[in-house]
Amino acid sequence: MTFPSLHRFSASPRRARCAAASFALAVAIALSVSTPIGVTARAAQDPPAARPPIPAIHDGVVVDAAGETAFIMTLDGNVQAVNLADGSIKWTQSTTAKPLALVDRTLLAQAPPGSSGELVLVTLDAATGASQQRMDVALPAGARALLTDGPSERFHVRPFAGENAAAVVLWTYEASPLKGVLGAPEMEETAEAMRTTISVPRNTDGGIRVDVTAGRATSLSTAEAEDQIRTTPSADAVARDASAARAATPAARQFRSVDDRHVLHSTRSSDPARWWTPYRWTITDAAGETVGAADAPVSMAPFAVAGTRLFYVAHPTSRRSGDTVIAEALRLRALDLRAGTELWAIPVADTLYRGPLPP
Question: Which residues does 193 contact at the CB level (< 8 Å), separation at least 6?
Answer without folding.
Answer: none
